[in-house]
Design goal:
The protein is of the alpha+beta class. It is built from six helices and four strands. Strands 1, 2, 3 and 4 form a four-stranded mixed beta sheet that branches. β1 and β2 form a beta hairpin.
């Protein structure tokens, strides 16, 4: 029996397609975050990037997202160790830290919608930045991490 690639390869050894498939499609990385200047504490909000479809949790222009949102952080093999704001459920973070993928992950279930069905995504829980009040502190939530 052959083990799946995510159990035999480190993130930096994965092909581009393998790397992209590790994303569980939760949309949590697309949420606006606030950081307390005094304590460096990070707060997630329920406000999503304007490119995120708030129901499907898919970016509406993934290939060209940096053109529309210049400060969009493109997670890569080169920066995975530097990005400390990924939620605890993030598949990249889990694999980086030597953990396995959760049972609801699409690579485990074979179902691209399993993250949404398991309630592990932002689907139906967020508002687009285009519709949000400018005061993001109103939208602080504790469920993404």
């Amino acid at each position: 029996m052959t083990l799946p690639f995510w159990k035999t390869k480190r993130l930096e050894e994965m092909t581009r397609d393998e790397w992209e498939s590790v994303c569980d499609g939760c949309g949590k990385c697309c949420l606006h975050k606030l950081q307390d200047e005094d304590t460096d504490t990070l707060f997630y909000t329920s406000v999503a990037c304007r490119l995120l479809d708030c129901n499907s949790c898919q970016c509406s222009d993934y290939p060209d997202r940096k053109q529309h949102v210049p400060d969009c952080v493109q997670l890569s093999k080169d920066n995975i160790d530097e990005i400390d704001w990924m939620p605890s459920t993030c598949a990249y973070r889990l694999l980086r830290d030597g953990e396995d993928l959760p049972e609801w992950h699409p690579l485990v279930t074979g179902d691209r919608q399993s993250t949404i069905r398991a309630g592990m995504s932002v689907s139906g829980r967020v508002v687009s930045e285009l519709d949000a009040h400018p005061d993001l502190e109103r939208y602080i939530v504790d469920w993404p991490s």
